[in-house]
From TrEMBL:
Gene Ontology molecular function, alphabetical: deoxyribodipyrimidine photo-lyase activity; DNA binding; FAD binding
Cofactor: (6R)-5,10-methylene-5,6,7,8-tetrahydrofolate; FAD
GO biological process: circadian regulation of gene expression; entrainment of circadian clock by photoperiod; nucleobase-containing compound metabolic process; response to stress
All copies of domain Photolyase/cryptochrome alpha/beta, residue ranges: 92-229
Organism: Aspergillus heteromorphus CBS 117.55
Cofactor mode of binding and number, as noted: Binds 1 FAD per subunit.
Protein's name in the database: Deoxyribodipyrimidine photo-lyase
PANTHER family: CRYPTOCHROME, SI:CH1073-390K14.1
Biased composition (Basic and acidic residues): 25-40
Marked site positions, Electron transfer via tryptophanyl radical: 418, 471, 494
Record-linked Gene3D superfamilies: 1.25.40.80, DNA Cyclobutane Dipyrimidine Photolyase, subunit A, domain 3 (1.10.579.10), HUPs (3.40.50.620)
UniProt: FAD binding residues: 332, 344-348, 383, 386-393, 484-486
Entry GO terms, CC: cytoplasm; nucleus
Bias (Low complexity) ranges: 9-20
């Protein structure tokens, strides 16, 4: 396929993103971005579920308050229904709706549901609804779906020991989920429904609709702030604005937690249901874990492989957390960027599935660090800071919701002249770029459904800057393959690597893949593990086997390792030129 480019926009949006607000009056916020057809053609905007790519002015309208943020839509739903909800008394049961919080330990929504059930001496029923359309629309990987289903099985067993049923079903139409939840609550005689909030746009809008629908049907729906340690909206700069840079945000996060230690209170696990729960809800205890949708299924061999790498459930998550804090955390600050060996916690699959809460992780690390969040042992401090990034990116998501709509934090960079060469994208995704550190990372992703954070930065920078391929294609590819795919964190990482997001590396700082390789895999151990064609290359030549005449290039050529698909120095110059043009500098 020949190289394809997006033509630069002739509009002035490239200089600020909002200057289309023409002299003739208010901008037309309903019109799509000028290149909306291309973003649909290359799978960036999924038109089966969403409208065309929005214009940059619409992003600005969210920033200046012209458009209501989804979190505000939810808050308004609660405000408008407060009297109806307060008048609702408990009935025959209480329901907790599990989503991305598949654990008993430190689950605030679940604990709230159990307290109401206990106080009224009625059973607690747990619910999980699989939505194939959501899994497709949200680009959820088969590996993460498998992890979720395996975790549900463990969760069901744990709940069963407490005589609490977990009812699970598949709902084919995502729009039907709110009405289906109301129907189930009515069937079970439940007037109280609890869940934990998810902060993506679709989920916030769905919850806002569910609050109103439940109130109309005399059901009290309460969604707890559980995913983040500090609730989005609680932190603001001296100017009263949401932080867009991590370092001052983290200082504010630490200060807030010191002043409000209750935010680090770990919720108790639920106790047992009344003894008659199994009799009254017998069928619910016999429920089977859903089967993965056809487009999200793995082979039995793949399932076995991933189960060995990432055993499911909160028991495994807590065990791994304890082992990491005891064995590796003290050296984390020194070793966290080393891609060889296992120097990190690899807890991200458990955070993503909700088998482990970020709050529990930080509380345990704080205890190991003698009660400190941001001082004392550098290893513990550094790891707490890394966990806090998850909060930061969700705070960003809530305040700038258009990043959930195929736009970047700096909308003007959607006007950058991106490349759409399919051959180059395939070389990147298959780990055949001729840059060993990039290829090792992409092959690890394919094999293990996971990648070290350092190499995530390297490969994202390579795609967006060395190849100048639209970063959103890489963002999608990661979500479709990572077992720990989390929208906010993934988007934030790609924003950093492509210099289009909050707290990015400036666009003029472009990773040199060879230098990254030499610095963070100095002995080539990581490359040799994942790129077998280069295992016999000795010494530093493994970082650039074709860059020197001699044995390294002969081995690489003999084993079929590809030559570099671009010249980094030339690619760097090209990227600087286009980024500079798009930024208006």
């Amino acid at each position: 396929m020949p190289p394809q480019k997006r033509k630069s926009s002739n509009s002035s949006a490239a200089n600020g993103g909002s200057s289309h607000a023409s002299k003739r009056g208010k901008p037309d916020l309903s019109r799509p971005h000028p290149n909306a057809k291309e973003t649909e053609e290359f799978g960036i905007v999924l038109r089966d579920f969403y409208p065309p790519e929005m214009c940059n002015e619409r992003c600005e309208a969210y920033n200046n308050g012209m458009l209501e943020r989804p979190i505000e839509t939810l808050q308004k739903a609660y405000e408008d229904t407060v009297e109806e909800r307060q008048a609702i008394d408990a009935n025959a049961a209480v329901v907790h709706w599990f989503k991305s919080d598949l654990r008993l330990h430190d689950n605030r929504g679940l604990q709230m549901a159990y307290q109401v059930a206990r106080d009224n001496k009625i059973p607690l029923i747990c619910l999980y609804i699989q939505s194939p359309e959501d899994l497709t629309a949200h680009l959820t990987s088969p590996a993460r779906v498998d992890m979720t289903l395996r975790t549900l099985g463990q969760l069901q067993r744990d709940l069963g020991e407490l005589d609490i049923p977990l009812y699970m079903e598949t709902q084919e139409k995502r729009k039907a989920i709110p009405q289906r939840i109301v129907e189930l609550c009515q069937e079970w005689g439940a007037n109280h429904l609890f869940a934990n909030l998810e902060y993506e746009v679709d989920e916030l809008r769905r919850e806002a609709a569910l609050v109103r629908l439940c109130a109309q049907n005399r059901i009290k729906f309460e969604a707890a702030h559980d995913t983040c340690i500090v609730t989005p909206g609680k932190l603001s700069s001296q100017q009263g604005k949401q932080y867009a840079v991590y370092s001052p945000w983290f200082r504010s996060w630490c200060a807030f937690l010191k002043e409000n230690p209750e935010y680090l209170d770990v919720a108790d696990e639920p106790g047992s249901n009344p003894s008659n729960a199994r009799k009254h809800f017998k069928k619910l205890f016999d429920c089977q874990v859903p089967v993965a949708p056809k487009n999200k299924q793995l082979s039995e061999e793949e399932k076995t492989h991933l189960r060995k790498l990432y055993p499911e459930g909160e028991h495994e998550a807590l065990k791994r957390l304890e082992a990491f804090l005891e064995e590796k955390a003290k050296k984390y600050d020194d070793l966290r960027n080393s891609v060889a060996g296992e120097t990190t916690s690899v807890l991200s699959p458990y955070f993503a599935s909700g088998a482990l809460s970020a709050r529990t992780a930080v509380v345990q690390a704080q205890k190991a660090n003698k009660g400190q969040l941001d001082r004392n042992q550098p290893g513990y401090q550094s790891w707490i800071s890394e966990v806090a990034w998850r909060d930061f990116y969700k705070h960003v998501l809530v305040n700038w919701p258009f990043i959930c709509m195929n736009k970047c934090f700096k909308p003007e960079f959607t006007d950058l002249e991106w490349e759409y060469d399919q051959n180059l994208f395939d070389a990147w995704s298959q780990g055949k770029t001729g840059f060993p550190i990039v290829d090792a990372a992409m092959r690890q992703l394919k094999e293990a459904a996971w990648m070290h954070n350092r190499t995530r930065m390297v490969v994202s920078s390579f795609l967006a800057k060395d190849l100048l391929i639209d970063w959103r294609r890489g963002e999608r590819y990661f979500m479709e393959h990572l077992i720990d795919g989390d929208f906010a964190s993934n988007h934030g990482g790609w924003g950093f690597g492509s210099s289009t997001g909050v707290d990015p590396q400036p666009y003029f700082r472009i990773f040199n893949p060879q230098r990254q390789s030499e610095r963070f895999d100095p002995d080539g151990e990581y490359i040799r593990r994942w790129v077998p064609e280069l295992r016999d290359v000795e010494g530093a030549a493994i970082h650039d086997p074709y860059g020197r005449e001699g044995e390294a290039s002969k081995i690489a050529e003999k084993n079929g390792y590809p030559r570099p698909i671009v010249v980094h120095a030339k690619s760097r110059d090209r990227a600087l030129e286009r980024y500079k043009k798009a930024s208006g500098h």
